[in-house]
Amino acid sequence: MCIRDSDIVVNASSQFGIHEVKVPIWSTPNQSDLVWYKATKQPDGKYVVHMNIRNHKNHRGTYMTHVYMYNNRGQQTAIALNNTNLPAIPDTLKAQVKNVNKEAGSYDVIIQAASQQGIDRVEVPTWSMKNQSDLVWYKAQ
What's domain 2-86's architecture? Predict the structure, then answer.
């Protein structure tokens, strides 16, 4: 077994055949972000689970991963993998104006944003009057 990026690759075998492989992953002490993933069998016989941090409330820190194999007789075999650290990512926000079209009175705002908590939305306020009486909020796409 190895953790590659956010994929868990499982080499599993049983003399009775494998019914399924499940992989619980969590990061919090009370397991409030616990998700049980069902591994997908690959053509080479290995099983793969793709861990997505969004499924874990975008928590950063130490993740615990176990693997449970169930054979065709209903017997379970389980192991705990080494902990995996997903370090905090500082929030970043960068923007620049591009594609100014003076004739049409338009331009694009190119935005780069990242947040360890995930991004709900990005909005861009735009105005030309000193008192902002013509303020318009645009939702970035």
Answer: Sandwich (2.60)
Cα 86–Cα 91–Cα 93 angle in degrees, nearest 5: 140
Q: pLDDT, tens digit, for every residue of 11-37?
A: 898 999 999 999 999 998 899 999 999
In eight-state DSSP terms, residue 20 is: E
8 A C-beta contact, residue 115 and residue 59: no
Q: Which two tokens stand for residue 98?
A: 């591009």
Distance separating alpha carbons of residues 50 and 32, to the nearest angstrom = 19
Record the tokens describing residue 96, joined without a space. 């620049």
Q: What are the domain boundaries of the chain?
A: 2-86, 92-139
Read off the tokens for 141.
């796409």
Is 81:8 a contact under the CB 8 Å cutoff? Answer: yes
Instruction: Burial-class residue 33 by CB neighbours within 10 Å (0-12, 13-18, 19+).
Output: middle
Contact in structure between 11 and 52 (CB atoms under 8 Å): no
Residue 73: alpha-carbon gap to chain centroid: 34
Low-confidence ranges of the chain (pLDDT < 50): 1-5
